[in-house]
Design a protein that fits this description.
The chain has 294 residues and is α/β, with parallel strands linked by helices. Helix content is 53%, strand content 12%. It contains 12 helices and 8 strands. Strands 3-2-1-4-5-6-7-8 form an 8-stranded mixed beta sheet, sandwiched between helices. Strand 2, helix 3 and strand 3 form a beta-alpha-beta unit.
Length: 294
């Protein structure tokens, strides 16, 4: 007798959900259901409905329809809406269903969501997505944590995903991602503050040469172009994550000034809604400087 393929649903159908569905291919993704708050924008270029149709996902207009008999639910909304998403979905969650919370939230937020999902009879798993979802798609490295992490690992492995368990407590996976982001996204913000200033002052070549001399293993113009692209394309989402990072540091009893400043830079550049264009630091810097205000 053939074992039934688990039914998968998405709450939130953005970049990560799209990437996972593309990676799985039609055999797994065809007919899967997703709910996204932007569902009303059906047909608009690049919006969730269009992406859903491209990957054979059925985008539905309410949470109950998306969660109907789902065995595995990927929650992939914005960081500030993760707990609310759990609250809104809990009444419709099938008993024993996995709730895979892949949102970039503080450990405290993850624990609040875990309590909500657990009270509804679901199996909550703290999931940290540890790299950009392109180009690896469903093979993007994931960290799992919580009491249901081991059975979730078996399910994700069966879907061809690249996951490993980081610990038995909810919040362990998210802590690793949050604290790592202080460095990764902080470096992006430092790049912006340093090299945009250098460009405006007309001394960027000398600043870059000095950086190259101090750190010869880094291709500074290329790294600068990449860091600016991350902020131009994903700045708003990264700002939301960095606000969660700031909360994480507060939960640990530590100052969070750098994380908060990083969130500010990410938001400022993301709000400009600029296309990244070619992989060219000067062009990207000039595009930002032409629109940036105090």
């Amino acid at each position: 007798m053939t074992e039934r393929q688990p039914k998968i649903a998405f709450i939130g159908f953005g970049e990560a959900a799209e990437a996972f569905a593309k990676g799985w291919g039609v055999d797994i993704s065809s007919g899967l259901k997703a709910y996204d708050e932007k569902v009303e924008q059906v047909g608009a270029p690049g919006k969730p409905a269009e992406r859903a149709m491209a990957t054979e996902i059925v985008l539905v207009s309410d949470r109950e329809a998306a969660l109907d008999d789902a065995d595995i639910v990927f929650c992939l909304v914005t960081a500030d809406r993760a707990v609310l998403a759990a609250e809104q979905a809990a009444p419709y969650l099938k008993a024993g269903a996995f709730w895979l919370d892949g949102n970039s939230c503080s450990p405290g937020a993850k624990r609040r969501s875990a309590e909500i999902i657990g009270s509804a009879g679901g199996r909550y798993v703290d999931v940290a997505i540890m790299a950009p979802v392109y180009p690896k798609l469903h093979r993007t490295p994931l960290l799992l944590a919580g009491p249901h992490a081991d059975p979730a690992l078996a399910v994700l492995t069966g879907l061809g995903m690249e996951a490993r368990v980081s610990g038995p407590k909810v919040g362990e996976a998210s802590s690793i991602k949050m604290i790592r982001s202080v460095m990764i996204k902080g470096m992006e913000a430092l790049t912006a503050e340093c090299l945009l200033a250098a460009r405006r002052a007309g001394i960027e070549e000398r600043v870059l040469a000095s950086l190259q001399s101090s750190n010869p293993n880094i291709d500074w113009p290329r790294q600068a172009a990449y860091n600016l692209e991350r902020m131009m394309v994903h700045g708003k989402r990264r700002a939301a994550e960095m606000r969660e990072v700031a909360i994480t540091l507060s939960e640990l009893g530590l100052p969070n000034g750098l994380a908060s400043a990083t969130a500010d830079w990410q938001q400022r550049i993301g709000d400009l809604v600029l296309p990244a264009g070619d992989e060219n630091y000067p062009k990207r810097a000039d595009a930002i400087l032409s629109r940036l205000k105090d």
